[in-house]
Structures are given as C-alpha cells and as structure tokens.
Backbone:
C-alpha cells in the first residue's frame, strides 16, 4: 500500500476518533450528565476540539494531501477520501483563529440573548448580537472563498456544492405548485374528528410501541440505543454506536411516534455506513440535505403512507384502545392533516413545511447580499408569512425568534430540510421503479427491498460521490422538485378529495 | 502571576481534561454503550490516551517543571502541584515506549488467558503469561528507579512512598493480633440465626432504600448519579461529576447496601476535592490507600456501627417487612459476622480481610525478590491460606486464580486495601477525639461533624501533602496499625461476647 496514503489514513483515523469522542461527550451531556458537571464538560469538550483543530491544521497533513492529490495509483475511494479530507483541512486552515474564537464566543452569547428575547417577545434585544453573528459569518465566508458570494459559501458548509443560483428556481417552482394546492386544501370543507390525536397515552406505553416499530424498521439495537430527551436527536459515535432519542408527550402520541420514525431514518443512514472505512471521511454521510432525505423518506414517504401502516397500525390499535374502531383511512387522514394556520416550522405539516423553509432561505439570502438589514427582519418575516400562508404572527416569539439556528450563527442550514424532502421523493420514486413490490412488502411488515436499495445507493456510498453524482447515480437525474411535487399533489388531492 | 507557572497550569489542565474524557468514555462503556461499539470504543480510548501520553512527555512540560522546581516565589500549593506533575512526567518519560506497548498488549492477553484458566481451574495455563507480566513489571521498575527494589517501585505506583521495609512490620503486627482473635471467634459457640440475610428483596426496593441512605450520607446527586453494573465502581470526571454504581442481588440485600455505602465513601472523597483546583494534579486524591480509607471508613467504622444504624435501620425495617421484629443488635451482629471459612477476598469480613491481603503481599514481594517462582504460586498460596485461616482451597479458581489484578500486571495494589483499613481507623479515631459527638450525630442521622472533618483533613487537602504528612497532620502520627487493632479487638470481643 502507498506509504503516504497509509500515513494519511492514520491521521484521519485519529481525527475521526476525536470527533466520535465529542459525539459521546455531547450525548452524555444531553442524556445522563449531572447538572453540576456543565462547566467541567465545557472544558473537556473544548480541549478535545482544540486538539482536533491542531491536528486538522498540522502541516504534515497538508503535505500528505498535496502529495496525494494527483497520485495516479489511488483508486476511486481513495481519491474521494483525499478530496473530503482536503475540504475539511481547507475550511480549518483558511479561517483565522481569531474568527473561530469570535464565532464560538458570540454564539454562546447569542444563544443566551435569544432565549431571553424570545421569552420577552422582543426582537430588538436580539438584533445587535445577530448583526455581529452575520458580520462574523461574512468574514468567515470571505476567508474560505473570497471570490464567491458569502451565502453560497455558507450553504456549502451543510450542502457541499449548493448555490443560490441552483436553489432559487427550485424554490420558485415549489411555491408555484404548493401555494395553490394549499389554498385548495384551506377551502376544503371536510373537517373530520381529530380529538383522538390528543387522547392520553402513558409514556411507557408509547415507548414500548415505538421501540417495536423502530426495531421493525431495521434499527440495530446492538449498535445503538433509544433514550428520552427534550429535543430529539440522532447522535453517538460512528456506525456501530448510533443513539437516538425521543420525547413522549402524553397528549400527543403521534408526535413522539413520527419523531422516532424520523430519527430512525437518520440512524439507519449512520448504521448503514461502510464499517470497514468507518474511521475515514469517505464513509461519512454525504451532506445534511442527504441526511434529512433519509429521515424524511422514512417519516413521510413510508411513515405517513398506507402500506407501512397496514403492517404497523394493528400494533397501535392493540396498545391504544381508542384506536380499536378507528379505520386505517381515518388514521391516515389524521397523520397527514394539513394545518395552514400553523405558525411554527417544527410542527408544520408536509405541505406547508417547504414554505417555512423558503421564507427563511429568502431572508438569509437577502441578509447576506445586503438587500435586507437585521433590524428589518421582523417586518420582512411577517410580510412573507402573510404572503405564503395568509397568517401573521401575533408576536416575534412565534415569528422571527422561533428558531434556534441564527442564535448560534448557523446561516444556510434551513434549505437542507427542504432539499431533504426533495431528495427523499426522488429516492423513493427511483427505489419504487426498481422494486415495485416495496409497498406490498411494507404492508407485510418487511423493510426489504427498500432498506437494501437505500443501503446500496445512499448509506454505503457515504461520501465516495459528490451529492450531484450520488443523486444522479441513484435516481438518473440531478436535484429535481418534480418527484416531490407529483407525490405531494397526488397524495393530498386524494386525501382531501379535491 | 508567574508566567511560567501559568503556562504549566494550562498544560496540566489540558491533561486533566483528557483524563476526565477517559473517565466518561470508560463509564459509558460499562453502563450504557451498545455492545456493538466495543471495537470503536477501543480506538477512541487509545487515541485519547496516546495524545495524553504525548502531552505528558512533551519537552516543554519538562522544561517548565525544571524551571519551576526551585522557584522561591511559588506558594506551598504551587510547589506541591509542581511535585505531583513531576512525578507523572517522570513515570511517563522513563518507561520506554516498547515497554508501555508490551505491558498493554500482554495485559489484554493475560486477562483473556486468566478468564479461561479460572474457568478451567487450571493455573498452569496462566503461568506463562503471568511470568511475562512479572518480567515486564520488573523492567518497568528498573526503568523508573534502577537503584530501588522492583517491588518498592510498584508499590509507589499506587501508594507513593510506601516500601516493603515499612509494610513488613505493620503486616507482621496485624498477624500477631488478628490470628489469635480469629481463632477465639472460630471457637465461639454462639451461632445466631442468619437466614434473614438471604430473604428476597426486589431490586427496585433495594435501590430506593439505598438511594435514600446514600443521600443522607451527603452524596450530592447534582454532581453525580447512581447506576447498576456487574462490578460496582466509583468513576466519572472530576469533583463535579462523580458517578457510582452498585448491583442488586435479590437474595443478598446487605451486600448491595454495604457496597453502595463503600462506593459513596469513595464518591464523597472525589466530590470533596478542591473544585477551584480541580484541573490540577494537586487537587487529586492522595493515593489508592487513602482512597480506600474513605470507602472503608464509611463502610466499616460508620456503616457497620451502631450509631449509624440507629438512624438508618428504621428505613430498612419499614421497607423490608422481615426486619420489623429484628432488634438492632441482632442486625448488627449479622452485618459484622466473621466467616473464617471464606476463601474469597472480595467477600471477606473486616477481620479476615487483612489476612487475604497480607498473603497476596507476601507472595508478590517474594515473586519480585526472586525467592518465589510463578509456577510455585499455587502451593505457596494454599500453604499460607492453611497457615492464616486454617483452610485450603479445593481448586485454583477459588485460590490463586480468584483475583483479576495479576492478569493485568497490577502488582503492588493489594496492600492498599489494608492500608485503607488502617488509615480509616486512624482517621476515625482522630475525628472522634476532636468531635466526641460524632456517634450521637450519626445516631440522629447527621453526617456532620464527621464529614466536615474528612473534608478539611483529607478531601480538600488532595495531594497538597505527601501521604505521610497528610496522615500526620490529620492524626498526629504516621501509619500505625494500633488504631485498627484496638477498634477491631474491642468491637469483635463485644459482638462475640469473648
């Protein structure tokens, strides 16, 4: 084996191990850490992160990557591994230390100020630190790629290769189809009984039912665990230690269940990574958009669909007495209820969710191009909410202050949610074309051949291919909103009898 | 502040953070990690440990310590901090890398072979790897201090400053008093009913009662947590994150309870460390012997005594129906039962435990001086068991193969258990002399002033003083077995009506 490449993989394996350590420390902090340990945990995390940064910016690593960049003896996987490592090194070396520090410190302060501002429904208190975070993000973008628009550089952090030039037409097309569809649904007079959705179900019953469903989706409990947390997440340390969490609202059983299915989608991606290359960047999940495609494919295409519930609904009915006489169709209508009056992104339905995202994308884009100032955000937010959904937030807490992202300086993340929905629809369509028996198998409680298709075309591919190459190899075309739009139009037209 | 000293503390803080990270990874591995993650956890741990070793042996750290060694501007705490750091650096730099590797690899192999050998009751299968481990330990000792007897260097790993020259007369004195005392007990005809000790108590009831007692001892749950594990331990990451575990045998409630009290003694020591210096070596627990003194003081002097149970026994009686009519005296007689027929160290009582330790100490000492060969260990073990306790193990599994220590090359650890018992008796005697109301307060359910005395004289002292200085400052004299011997003689003479 190429000696330089062997040395490179050793250095990258150490970096992966440090990332995994951060994963365990973070999981521990959320789930089991005693409250008194918050300060010492902060020191432990920053020590490990500083060491990882030192290693990522070590001159020898840059030297190895330089020497290997055009090495003709490397195979395709090795070439991809070098490319992914180079990407990490570039970002780490180009951003000067003072900006990294400023970002970290301002994010901590920003979060505190945001919590208070949201509580007081008072955007003006948050505006100054948000301004600082925007300026830092601009400086960071300029350091990474001075020749590119700042917001494109930020998008690239979460979705490598994504740009405004590509997103604008995609999002415009979504609006073109979704806005009239939502208007037709809003006009629908069919208002079925939904009170069963708020029936009381003890947390422990929810946990048992949920665990059973998670297991039947192919989640491997020998390489993972399920815990309870305020904010559900999928974390852990590499493909053999993938930990998911959920919360159990005793008067909203459906939310915890679809939340578990969503996190299981993320977890199946992580558990499906190439274990033989688990310590190398090339095995990592491709991007946040592709990650979200896996959670949404299982939550929406599968977990909001009739086939899946043919097998799983009887489990619910036998555990939750009030569902015994509820037909599957009525249950599915409840699962897929569209509520265009909802102000909050995280509780939005499948149809309105993209509009919540597009709103945020457009504001971020205009903020970074200079067309919009921070102080004008609330007015711009409310105008867009009125334009897209016909509602205006009564205050900023349920408007411009509702999301945590900006308080930590995470600009450019929101589009990934909707990219995920679009990729999910493309993947599911492609899998169905290749395996028309997927619905029939799901209806029999079997996740194969769907899971096998995802393993082969997404999970095991990892970062071997770029996002575009992966999506093209899997679906025959680049990012394309039509799969989602035809799926959504057909489904909701049918459900609402439009 | 001295700039060099400030630089030193920064480097030491990083090392402490890495040690704490290892603490969390290890706790996670024992308590919550999915089984499939064993291999990746091994990589994470070794990555962090290699980084810690690189930092401990970094030339700049040695330079700083050199420059600060005789710096007259340092105060006593700073001088002690330099001394403790120097000790760590010396051990890390003097042992060559090939020995560290050989030790680690042979320990893994040794453990595997020992598990099989114990299962097959076949010492001969374990002898070759044990021989290797002894030779590696000798080489390691020679690398650290070539002018000292090897076994003294090994003792110093766990109990800094301890030597065979000091241990021999102490242990001889213990034998002189304990052997005839045990003989008198063995001859006692008083055999009370002990069947209540094996009454069934559900694990959850044991947990509730135990948690209550642990809390009443002053254990701070905001800086710790209590979990279940096969081998109980006290772990975590620094004084604000001290985690204890226990196991619940449903037909031996007393074992889990005294086990919890024991681990709480360790935990109180860790939680009582100087938080302001938590990231520096000077705040660390003084030694394994002093650590064991804290667990044993709470388990034995306090937790096997009448005063403590006057407050706590009613809790047991109300939770465990079968104790309702059992008088406190009969309960205490059961708690303190001496079983000289017991072959196993970990389940030995307070009186015979030191003999199990002395036996191991004498064998280790003779092994390292060359007076005893590995292959002769079983015969030597059995002869000593016969000489001290009048019993001979029926096989090696319950004889020479019973302990895990040697399988990992941990030679010189055993004496700490009995040093702990001796220090515990000295500390308790000194605390009583200063606060004669300790029993009265314990009987009222109050751990003050005992805990306050331990905080001031042991916990907060950390490693500011050497063991000898700490013990002298706290008790007015050096290590001295008489406190333990008079306590034990008085207690067991009374309990057994001798």
Residues:
């Amino acid at each position: 084996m190429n000696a330089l490449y062997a040395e490179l993989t050793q250095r990258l394996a150490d970096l992966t191990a440090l990332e995994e350590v951060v994963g365990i420390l973070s999981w521990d902090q959320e789930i089991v850490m005693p409250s008194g340990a918050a300060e010492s945990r902060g020191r432990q995390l920053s020590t490990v992160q500083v060491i990882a940064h030192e290693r990522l910016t070590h001159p020898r690593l840059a030297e190895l990557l330089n020497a290997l960049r055009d090495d003709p003896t490397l195979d395709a996987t090795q070439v991809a591994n070098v490319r992914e490592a180079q990407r990490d090194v570039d970002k780490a070396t180009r951003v000067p230390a003072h900006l990294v520090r400023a970002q970290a410190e301002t994010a901590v302060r920003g979060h505190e100020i945001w919590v208070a501002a949201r509580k007081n429904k008072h955007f003006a208190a948050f505006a100054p630190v948000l301004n600082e975070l925007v300026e830092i993000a601009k400086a960071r973008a300029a350091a990474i790629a001075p020749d590119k628009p700042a917001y494109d550089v930020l998008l690239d952090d979460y979705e490598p290769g994504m740009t405004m030039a590509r997103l604008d037409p995609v999002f415009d097309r979504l609006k073109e189809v979704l806005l009239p569809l939502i208007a037709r649904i809003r006009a629908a007079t069919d208002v079925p009984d939904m009170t069963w959705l708020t029936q009381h179900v003890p947390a422990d019953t929810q946990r048992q039912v949920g665990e059973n469903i998670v297991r039947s989706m192919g989640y491997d409990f020998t390489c993972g665990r399920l815990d309870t947390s305020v904010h559900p997440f999928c974390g852990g340390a590499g493909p053999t230690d993938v930990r998911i969490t959920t919360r159990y609202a005793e008067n909203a059983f459906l939310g915890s269940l679809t939340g578990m299915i969503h996190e299981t989608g993320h977890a199946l991606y992580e558990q499906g990574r190439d274990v033989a290359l688990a310590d190398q960047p090339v095995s990592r999940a491709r991007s946040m958009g592709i990650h979200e495609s896996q959670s949404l494919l299982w939550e929406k295409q599968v977990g909001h669909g009739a086939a899946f519930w043919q097998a799983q609904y009887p489990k619910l009915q036998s555990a939750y007495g009030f569902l015994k006489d509820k037909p599957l169709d009525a249950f599915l209508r409840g699962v897929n209820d569209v509520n265009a009056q909802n102000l909050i992104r995280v509780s939005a339905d499948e149809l309105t969710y993209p509009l919540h995202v597009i709103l945020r994308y457009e504001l971020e884009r205009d903020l970074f191009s200079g067309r919009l100032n921070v102080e004008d955000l609330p007015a711009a937010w409310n105008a867009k909410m009125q334009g897209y959904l016909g509602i205006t937030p009564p205050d900023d807490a349920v408007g411009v202050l509702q999301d945590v992202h900006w308080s930590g300086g995470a600009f450019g993340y929101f589009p990934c949610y909707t990219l995920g929905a679009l990729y999910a629809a493309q993947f599911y369509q492609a899998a169905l074309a290749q395996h028309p028996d997927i619905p029939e198998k799901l209806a029999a409680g079997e996740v194969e051949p769907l899971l096998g298709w995802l393993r082969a075309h997404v999970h095991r591919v990892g970062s071997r291919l770029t996002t575009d190459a992966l999506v093209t190899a899997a679906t025959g075309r680049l990012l394309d909103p039509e799969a989602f739009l035809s799926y959504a139009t057909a489904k909701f037209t049918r459900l609402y009898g439009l």
Q: What stands out?
A: The longest strand of chain A covers residues 224-228. The CA atoms of residues 368 and 410 of chain A lie 13 Å apart. Chain A touches chain B at residues 13-14, 17-18, 20-21, 24-25, 28, 32-37, 39-41, 43-44, 47-48, 51, 220-225, 237-238, 240-241, 243, 278-279 (CB under 8 Å).
